[in-house]
Specification:
The chain has one helix at 391-394, and strands at 2-8, 12-13, 22-30, 33-40, 49-55, 65-67, 76-84, 87-95, 99-106, 117-118, 127-134, 140-146, 152-158, 169-170, 181-188, 194-200, 205-211, 220-223, 231-239, 245-252, 257-264, 275-276, 285-293, 296-303, 310-316, 327-328, 337-344, 348-354, 361-373, 379-385, 396-398, 404-405, 412-418, 421-427. It is mostly beta strands. The two termini are 24 Å apart.
């Protein structure tokens, strides 16, 4: 029998203030540290600030909460984070006269952040939608949508841990016109290549721009999608250890949106035809996010199949050729859960906006998706349990859907995780 073990913790509230809006989460993880950023409306002297809350035990609990931005005037919005050897980096939209892209750094695991600096080198009109990544040598790359210079995608690089940034470089230099290019996503490979995916509004297409000189120039451009969507948006990009590039997006080619993914195995020279990630096509599936963990690829998205948005995850064990069935992440389903983000360290970590209260809050969970068979070493012989009270003393309990339980109240089949092993448990009374 094939076993699909969805081993995630119960969802937990991240923000400590619950009287105002908290939204747009971004999550990063390194070893046992998990950091979640979001935009927060609690300060009545401004509109939104950027907050960060940190877990030091692999996401099982969250401790200190920190305000990232030093200026508390007007709006700071849409954070994105990255981490390199424990150094924590964050970029966000910062509105003073127009929106600029601000960068800040923490060297004490999110307890405090440096005064922010401006990344973009023009401060006329607004710069929006920042994304950040760090390559294996520690170089920091920030990309954003520039609403002033012909509404294009720009990039800046730091080689000194974020103390300064190079002049901005036009990313879509091979595809620049008067129509907007927006919603950038960025990744790097181990050989110094930089990849940026973005949406072109005129052709309604997803493009990839590539730099082979660490972001100084972008001399290769290719369309990723096959032109089958009447509308598409929200690309995300990931690169695995073998250099395979994955780009996911939401596309409407039927009556609703679905999640599609295309991959390149030749450093972005070409892309294979896209596949649909979601296995249920009723209603909308939107806002995909990607992460690579070990040799596996994961996609999360918001899913409207049950008349509220929920957060779903799917796993690929063959490098994006196919995906296993999707499973719901959130354990509260009465109201919508939206705008997920995902990161990976020893476990997967997922954060999202939760609408169970009057205003949005940030919730998160951590865990893993394990695939196997009953005769694998990770599963010991079946236990027939009497009494059931003994189970909770032995380890973590999960039902057949993979949901973590605090106790067992009825007979059935369960799974007991003890350390790195999982035991099948049959409760008979």
């Amino acid at each position: 029998m094939i076993l699909f073990l969805f081993l995630f913790d119960p969802s937990q509230l991240i923000n400590t203030d619950t009287t105002n809006r908290q939204q747009a989460p971004a999550v990063v993880a390194y070893e046992n540290f998990v950091h979640i950023f979001w935009e927060d409306e609690r300060d009545t002297s401004c509109d939104f600030d950027i907050y960060c809350r940190t877990s030091t035990d692999g996401g099982h609990s969250f401790g200190y909460e920190t305000v990232v931005n030093y200026l508390h005037e007007k709006n700071q919005r849409n954070p994105d984070g990255a981490i390199y050897n424990g150094a924590l980096y964050v970029v966000f939209e910062d509105y003073q006269h127009y929106y600029d892209i601000s960068f800040s750094r923490s060297t004490d695991h999110g307890k405090s952040f440096s005064p922010s600096i401006t990344v973009n080198d023009t401060t006329r009109y607004s710069q929006r939608s920042p994304k950040i990544t760090v390559d294996r040598s520690g170089k920091i790359f920030v990309v954003w949508y520039d609403r002033y210079r012909n509404k294009d995608i720009y990039l800046a690089r730091s080689t000194d841990n974020g103390n300064s940034f190079t002049p901005s470089v036009l990313v879509n230099s091979l595809h620049s016109d008067s129509f907007p290019q927006y919603q950038p996503a960025i990744g790097t490979d181990s050989e110094g290549r930089v990849f940026v995916a973005f949406v072109d509004s005129f052709t309604q297409a997803i493009y990839l721009a590539r730099s082979t000189d660490q972001g100084n120039n972008f001399d290769h451009l290719i369309r990723i999608d096959q032109g089958k969507d009447s509308a598409l948006s929200c690309p995300d990009l990931a690169v695995d250890n073998a250099g395979r590039i994955y780009v996911a997006w939401e596309g409407r080619r039927n009556s609703d949106y679905d999640i599609y993914l295309a991959r390149s195995t030749n450093h972005g020279e070409s892309f294979e035809p896209e596949i649909r990630v979601n296995d249920i096509t009723d209603r909308n599936q939107r806002k995909p996010k990607l992460v690579v963990k070990s040799d596996d690829l994961y996609v999360v998205w918001e899913d409207y199949r049950d008349n509220n948005y929920d957060i779903y995850i799917a796993k690929s064990t063959d490098h994006g050729v196919s995906f296993l069935r999707s499973e719901r992440v959130n354990d509260y389903t009465e109201k919508s859960q939206r705008y997920p983000d995902i990161a990976a360290a020893d476990r997967l970590h997922i954060a999202w906006e939760d609408y169970r209260a009057t205003s949005a809050d940030i919730y998160a969970t951590g865990g893993e998706v394990r695939i196997g068979t009953e005769d694998e070493r990770s599963l010991s012989p079946t236990i027939f349990a009497i009494p059931v009270e003994e189970l909770s003393r032995e380890g973590e309990i999960f039902d057949v859907t993979g949901r973590r339980l605090t106790k067992v109240i009825s007979p059935g089949i369960y799974f007991l995780r003890i350390g790195d092993g999982v035991k099948k448990v049959v409760v008979i009374k």
